[in-house]
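re: ur question from yesterday

yeah so i grabbed the chain u mentioned. its 137 aa long if i counted rite. heres the sequnce exactly as i have it in my notes:
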Amino acid sequence: MKIRVMQPTDFKNICSLWEKINVQPESVIQDQKNSKLLLKLNSTTCFVAEKDGDIIGSIFGLFNGRRAWIHHLGVHPAFQNQKLGAQLLAMTEDSLHKQGANRVLLQVDFHNLGIIPFYQKKGYQITLDAITFAKNL
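ran it thru and got these structure tokens back, copy pasting raw so excuse formatting
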């Protein structure tokens, strides 16, 4: 298994992974539209994990110069609980820090609340200082 920087050609296989880990369909559709731009703007902070040529994990680290976000950390079910998610998260945090980020934010969807202990173990804290709004354009 190896972890490497994500390439635009990986996105089709990443979408297949997301189907296996229950990423919400509206997120996949939106990210398909934006994947090339996401990677262009964040070329050193998005990673995939591969085994035998198959993508078994992915993570987007997004940084706009002010805020950093973790987006869609996911690991294939057959490889969960083997520290792969922790490795992807640590690599992304390190890469974001090198870009100048001092704080990283992430969101947990209501259908995925079971992941909260993982993030808490990695030092993330629930904040009550913001409400997330969304608007489709």
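noticed a couple things. The mean pLDDT is 88. also The chain has one domain: 2-121.
anyway ttyl
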